[in-house]
Amino acid sequence: xxxxxxxxxxxxxxxxxxxxxxxxxxxxxxxxxxxxxxxxxxxxxxxxxxxxxxxxxxxxxxxxxxxxxxxxxxxxxxxxxxxxxxxxxxxxxxxxxxxxxxxxxxxxxxxxxxxxxxxxxxxxxxxxxxxxxxxxxxxxxxxxxxxxxxxxxxxxxxxxxxxxxxxxxxxxxxxxxxxxxxxxxxxxxxxxxxxxxxxxxxxxxxxxxxxxxxxxx
Length: 217
Fold this sequence. Notes:
Layout: H1 3-34, E1 42-45, E2 56-57, H2 68-75, E3 80-86, H3 94-107, E4 108-118, H4 126-132, H5 150-159, E5 163-170, E6 176-178, E7 208-213
Parallel strand pairs: 1-2, 1-3, 3-4
Antiparallel strand pairs: 4-7, 5-6, 5-7
């Protein structure tokens, strides 16, 4: 996408966001109010209407990762059991990503977790990298701000105070690593286990997936 269409698209996106914001904020407040007391509170950031039963979907207009004051108004304090973010952090600069991680840490209950997935910068397929790199050819890649690998991504959340477990990732030698993870604690659709492409791809689609857990003590 050339510079001029990008500017027009971003201006249009900002306008739509301003128009949607009051409705989405009201819907989110209602969803939190209806959430059954005594059951774990689970939210999806950047859901784009993709979420599982028992999870509350949010968008940037209703819950901005970079505005912790909005979270205070909705949650008050550390009451969230789980946060799910699939392919969100690559749309933030590294500095914004750290702010977002600290926001999640602040509002998670002790022992709660953030499950987060981004494109994997060590994927061995050159075509995959071309699609997901900053300014890449894939959908929405023109808005990508950073391409993480497992070391740099884990370090970001450790700086925010999390204990990190790597769930799926490629290493520097081109080997893929995966551990069993419970989809009930956050289903990542763009993962080795669950990705179902609409049409065949010339490479196996995987994401770099982490669990970032807030210490219980």
